[in-house]
Amino acid sequence: MIDTCSGHGSRIDAPSGAPSHGRRLRSRWPVLAGMVAAGLTAYGLAEGAELAPVLTASALVYLAAAALRKPAAAWPLFWGAFAVIALAKVMVPAVDPTWVLLGTALAAVVYGLLTGAARPAEGLPLQTVAMAGFGLVAAVTVVAGAEFGAYLVAAGLLGHAAWDVRHHRTGKVVVRSLAEFCFVLDALAAVAMVIVAVRG
């Protein structure tokens, strides 16, 4: 817009509705947070079993949010799931956190059924099926270990990344910021696992 009042007709102001660079950057915080989380997850990564709890937690967040019927609960659930992983490793190091998370998933399903969260079908029922699939991949990874487990969990994480994209588009079950964050975390963690497996 030309400023005719000040006599500086050559100055052009940016449209008031145009988003600033800072605002665009702030809107992409889930991507940046996902990259940081993926970096921390990949640090010192050696085998697929290390990522099995991450895959299980990713699916659990969606399942628990569906059981509660509160998409906004996704972020507290995410932090809760990873707190469970950390505590399990410290308090019961002999037990893989994957099993603890799978037990938590079962409790979430029971809670959802008891509180009437069985509908709609794309909520608890669909998330239960997804949890069963991703949970099975994680469980087999823990049992199999070695190279096969590495590629299996990487495939599982990429599958969940696609699940994240689907939910980001629909805006259902979890908030979009969580789906965006989880997509970046899952995809980058999968790539890191493949690189570690290839390098041996």
UniProtKB/TrEMBL annotation:
Transmembrane helix in keyword set: yes
Transmembrane segments: 29-45, 75-92, 98-117, 129-158, 178-198
Coiled coil: none
Keywords: Membrane, Transmembrane, Transmembrane helix
Keyword Transmembrane helix: yes
Region entry Disordered, spans: 1-23
Highest taxon in the source lineage: Bacteria
The protein's name: Lysoplasmalogenase
Lineage, highest ranks first: Bacteria, Bacillati, Actinomycetota, Actinomycetes, Streptosporangiales
